[in-house]
Structure formats: structure tokens, C-alpha cells
Amino acid sequence: MSGLRRLFRGSGRALAFVFAASVVWLLLDMAALRLSLGDAGGRLLKEAADHPQAPGQFGHPVSVPADKQEEAKSRWKEGNFNVYLSDLIPVDRAIVDTRPAGCSEQRVHDDLPNTSIIMCFVDEVWSTLLRSVHSVLSRSPPHLIEEVILVDDFSTKKYLKEKLDKYMSRFPKVKILHLKERHGLIRARLAGAEVAKGAILTFLDSHVECNVGWLEPLLERVRLSRTKVACPVIEVISDKDMSYMTVDNFQRGIFTWPMNFGWRQIPQEIIEKNKMKETDIIRCPVMAGGLFSINKKYFFELGMYDPGLDVWGGENMEISFKVWMCGGEIEIVPCSRVGHIFRNDNPYSFPKDRVRTVERNLARVAEVWLDEYKELFYGHPGSPGALQRTRSLCFGRAQWAENT
Ligand SMILES: [Mn+2]
């Protein structure tokens, strides 16, 4: 006791106060932790209990009946995947919990920030869009969802207007923004972000299925640091048989010149040297782009996406470079898993030529952010000179002037 008193005397007092305050903070912090999703298995079974035999239940593959082959073939182009099968599968099907062992015992804070989910689409297939929304609503704790904003990027399909409004009216959290002209994915996301009310923005594609416990680990990372950008592991929904497939662990988002996004396995010796576990966070140079959570204020501080990027492509590079150059981090969170239908081609048209649009976007990103490394992008010395840049320092907006 006298030792403790001595500690509080003189210059030791400040130190002791800091120590005591840290202990109190730690205790409070621990009290805020709670067990998350321990009963995930039970929930999954309950979900499927209604229709255990339904096609595609549990993420199982489905095959097209012999007499429906022609119909399935002709409907493929509606979404560039098996639209016929998508329509057969329940919009609220169960999928297998593919998280690595240990995820369901992980704790998250009780005071996670809430999020606005932003899903942009143009002419998305009805059943696929519904399955995406249902998976968000049924596998996210309601108090963490501020709203689900569906941004209809001037779709041409009639069912995406009044019929969609009517269907979604039963879910008070779902809001639909019908854009009056085609914005392209990048500017459609900005339109969604402008009206979002949540502390965190979570961008998702409109042909996904969120897995059990997908949201909490993402929000936990962003809560730990407001400059963390958290991405789920993107799993595969087969475009052919609509089965839900898991992917290899320890994958990182990388790019190769000229700024092509890809996945790369972390080398085995690195995994062993760092004693990495399957549940460990993986830091990535770049993100795939479709699915991530980001603090809304931070997103605005970064200048969001460069609104001069057109339609789609390169925006994942742009946001990734900005995040790292402005003190942030991009992480893949292995305990968060979302299935995604990978397609060979975009079903919708690009207003201009697709290849040229993506090339132009990438050149724009290279010009603003790569400095001397842009020569690696062009693959030869000299720059096109068509674009002139003025890049302000971090936390500023990239400003552009276009010369003709
Ligand atoms: Mn997609």
C-alpha cells in the first residue's frame, strides 16, 4: 500500500494515472466485447428448414432439366449467367458457413458503427438482385444496418421500376434510388454515397450472397481504425450451376502491369515464418473493388472516386492508391465471406467502347497517382500528353483539366 502511495507521489503520479486510466479503459473495452454468432450453425439450419429440398438449397449445384435446356440457353444472355436456374432457387436459400474454424468464436465490440449498404445495378436479373438483398437482410444484425440503398442506374427493364419498389416496400430499411440518366457504376456509387446516412459505407454488387456473420468482422476493422478499408473474402457463385463455392485461403489482392487486378497466394514460407492463421487479417496493395466497407467521412476526405472515371474499371486502383498514400490500409477479413457471380462478360452495354473506356480510366489513374512509376504502366517512356494533372496532397481531391 505504501508502495502504491509512493508511486502517486511526485513525477510518478502522472505515470500512475496513465496506468490506472489504461486499466479502466481496457476493462470497459473488454466489457463491450461480446460473443458474436456462436449460434450460426443453428440459424443456418432454421433458414433452410422451410424448403430443404428446394433447388440450390445449401448452395448445392443445380442442373437444368433435359426439356428446359433450350429455355435455359436462351435466357443466359439476360445476365451472362444461368438466369433460368437463378429463378428456380429460393431468394432466401441457405448457404454453407464457409468461414475458417475460429471465426464463430471471435468477439466484436458491442458498439460497432452502423452502415449503409450501397448496391448499384443496371438491368440486374430479378431473382439475383432479390437474393442479394435477402442475404444482407437475413444475415446482418438489424441494428448494424442503417439502410440498404439500391441504386438503379437507369435500367431499361420494366420490373426494376414499380414492381421492385412494391416488393421492397415491405422492408422499411430498403431505399431505392432510380437515377434519371445512366451514371455508370462509379458515379452511381457516388450518388448512393451522397444520400447515405450510416457512419460506414458498405458497397456490394447486386449479384452476391452474403454469408453467415459477414458484416460484423468488417465493421470491427473499421471501428478499430477509421482509415482501415475492410474487404470480405469473395467466394464464387457458379455462373453455370449456381452452386456456392469457397476459395483458397491466404489470397491477396495484387496488380500486374498495366494495372490488371488479380489474386495471389501468400507464399508458404511467409505463412510459416509469420505463423499466419486462416483467420488472420490480410493486408493488400489493392482491392478487387466490388465489395468493401469504408468510413463515410474518410471516403469523402479521400475525394471519393474521381468522378471523371467513366462507367466502370480502374476505380478499384484509384481508391486503393489513395487509401495507402493517405495513411490508410486495405485489408481482407477472412471471417467475412460473400459469394459473387463471376461472369465472362458484362451483360450491359458500355456507352462507349468498353476497352477504350477502361484504358482511359486506367491512364487517368496512372497520370494522377503513379508519378515516375507511370512509365511502367505505359510500358515505354513518354506520356500521351492528352491529360494534364494537378494533384493536391493527401486528403485533397484529384483535380483534372482535359486538353483537346
Ligand atoms: Mn460483380
TrEMBL record:
GO CC, alphabetical: Golgi apparatus; membrane
Q: In the record, what terms sit under GO molecular function?
A: polypeptide N-acetylgalactosaminyltransferase activity
Provide one Gene Ontology biological process annotation. protein O-linked glycosylation
Signal peptide range: none
Its keywords, alphabetically, are:
Disulfide bond, Manganese, Membrane, Signal-anchor, Transmembrane, Transmembrane helix
Tell me which residues make up the Glycosyltransferase 2-like domain: 116-299
Key word Manganese present: yes
Q: Which cofactor does it need?
A: Mn(2+)
Q: How does it sit in the membrane?
A: Single-pass membrane protein; Single-pass type II membrane protein
**What does the UniProt entry say about where the protein is found?**
Endomembrane system; Membrane
Membership in a protein family: Belongs to the glycosyltransferase 2 family. GalNAc-T subfamily.
Q: Any idea what this protein is called?
A: Polypeptide N-acetylgalactosaminyltransferase 5
Species for this entry: Amazona collaria
